[in-house]
Amino acid sequence: MTAIPAPRIAARHASRPAVRRLSRAATVRLLAVACAALYTAALTLPWLRADLGAPLRAGELALQLPGLGRPAGASWAVVVIVLAAVHAAVAVVPGRYQAPVALTGAALSLTAVCGFLLLGAFADYALQQHLLDGQATLDAVRRIVGYRISRPTVTTLGPVELPPGAAPLVSALRAGFLLAVVAAAFSAGLWTLTRRGWADGRGAPVPVRWAAQGVVLALGVLGLLMAAQAWWAGMLSERAATELAAGRAAAARAAVDAALGVNATLRARPDVQQVLGDTAMVGATRLPAQQLYGQSLLLKDAGRHDEALGLAVRAAAADPAEQSYADTVCRLAADRAQSASGIDVVRSLVPVSQRCDLALLQLAASELAAGRYDLVPIDAGQLSRQTPDRDLRSAALTELARARLATGDLVGGRTLLQQALASDPDDLNVVARALASGLYSAGG
């Protein structure tokens, strides 16, 4: 047996740690690049499907922080861009700085993911109400079209029952946010690797480590502060309702104004809207839109639905930026359009620009049932053009086809049914399929 010289053995063993350190350093940098790429991809994908409208991306979701409002009009896209930049920095900074930068990235990632879930479920009432209204709209659409439009519904995560505020949010999550969750998990793993010595070079200077730890501490304090602010805002809104019930309108208005000063998204809650509307009727110095809205609520409670709809339309026109006014017009118009007598009322009171998808769908269905085939192309046609939802577009085209068939236009009806089926790739529109099969079997 030939013996290997001792110097060669020593050289071989000496080279192994260097190769291992290089491989670990490359792994850390590649994982950092993967995190940055995942966050970048999350920007381009939808995060939420709140209702029958278009899915919302991170840039379309307002960053609403209790006590801080919406800083500089920021959206969640700003947070994702910062996360992508921090993880890209881990890949390019010298090895001695990788551990503190990775700690900062992991803390930001986990705070952003958990913060989005907690804010959306419990503190961002505008988003929360949007999710609840979207579910109510979907239920109304199912009633109108006569078939089920499937949307995922999540009520539990394993053995854990989701709270009422969290269930709609979790059900609405889409690929963009789920990709951000994966990136946050990778980020936590990246920090763990750097803590275990996988980053190359000497340790970071003490001031750099303190800065990273300061970021983590600041994020924790900010989270506690926002939780306290959200709790205090809820207490103030409940106090406003109590004061109003006791007949102390001035105290109720002061309490609800203080609550909105802490968390502006409270305005989206129906009970807060009721307090605002009722107190607006007491003082003569309130905004005209709020006065109109308050009067519409009172008239609705009194059963005077036509007058309530008219005032709600005026309130929405006076303050187009207030989404709750437009949502109220949508709900009142859809409810009123269910009857044959409400068709002309809605068409006369609600301008074309304020007719939401749900109201147009209900109008077209009522017009079809009442035999007013001349009006169906107007409302169903507008719906098919303005809605971003393919299921609603398929339903609108089906109503157009039924109106054509009812007037004897078999060619036009068949063409519209083909368009309705083309807009229904999931084969949910059983009405269009039944009509189309009947036409073809009859040789029409």
Describe the structure.
This protein is mainly α. 70% of the residues lie in helices and 2% in strands. The protein has helices at residues 6-44, 76-92, 98-123, 125-145, 166-172, 175-195, 206-245, 249-262, 270-280, 288-301, 305-318, 323-336, 341-349, 357-369, 376-386, 390-406, 410-422, 430-441; strands at residues 46-48, 56-57, 156-157, 160-161. A two-stranded antiparallel ribbon has the order 1-2. A two-stranded antiparallel sheet has the order 3-4. The protein starts with 5 loop residues before the first helix and ends with a helix. The model is unreliable at 18-22 (pLDDT under 50).
Question: Descriptors for this entry?
Answer:
two-stranded antiparallel sheet; flat
Structural topology:
Layout (H helix, E strand, L loop, with lengths): L5 H39 L1 E3 L7 E2 L18 H17 L5 H26 L1 H21 L10 E2 L2 E2 L4 H7 L2 H21 L10 H40 L3 H14 L7 H11 L7 H14 L3 H14 L4 H14 L4 H9 L7 H13 L6 H11 L3 H17 L3 H13 L7 H12 L3
Antiparallel strand pairs: 1-2, 3-4
Helix pairs in contact: 1-2, 1-6, 2-3, 3-5, 3-6, 3-7, 4-14, 7-8, 7-9, 8-9, 9-10, 10-11, 11-12, 12-14, 14-15, 14-16, 15-16, 16-17, 17-18
